[in-house]
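[agent] plan:
  1. take the single chain provided in the ticket
  2. run structure prediction with default settings
  3. attach structure tokens to the ticket
  4. add a short note for the reviewer (M.T.)
[agent] executing step 1
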Amino acid sequence: MDAVSQLPLTGERTVPGIVEENYWFRRHEAAYLALRPYCVDAFVLEAGCGEGYGADLLARGAVGVLGLDYDALTLRHVARAYPSVFPARANLVALPVRSSTVDVVVNFQVIEHLWDQAGFLAECRRVLRPGSRLLITTPNRITFSPGRDTPLNPFHTRELSPAELADLLRATGFDVEYLAGLRHGTRLRALDEEFGSLIDAQVAVAVSGEPWPSGLRDAVASVTAADFAITTDDLESSLDIVAVAVTS
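[agent] step 2 finished; step 3 output follows
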């Protein structure tokens, strides 16, 4: 099934199956694959499921996955494309779930879009069972919008540094079990050398509106989730922050 053709691009939402989007899709997929073991035999709530590819991946081994999103068109697409996911419309600061009923909450590349981040985390803590986990990823403000307090990305309301995310989690009653950073692995670092910066080269093409150079397009098409590394070293230079937080 060609799931992509059924859901329009927004300029921010990442979808599978588009060559020019492949770098961003694989970067997100890497986090889903790395943290999927937490979801095995668990009832999972994904807060901000987007296109649904991640929720579908997590559903392979989970007891069930509830995919929440605010956009009705997106949810209709999820229902058609991913029958293993239970989609529902929701405001993420008012989760439509009873307290202490969820084993894992997943929130990947979403918290930076929210105005009330503390309110959202409080809701996550409310719906999670005691001792259960929140899995979260978000762009690292220090590298995503360097030297700025306001995000470069117009879709983002507040980006966080690793320390800021950890502080926010602790302030809302979570214990931070794991804090790491996603970065380029060996092959992507080689492509950075070739193009100056693989990310900047993609952004330059998108801004210019010019056709993609074949070499750059081929390089982007070749990226896999395995080309990214998630480590606890030098968090400040990471591209995305990866956190696992536990309810008390």
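[agent] step 4 note for reviewer: The CA atoms of residues 82 and 213 lie 34 Å apart.
[agent] ticket updated
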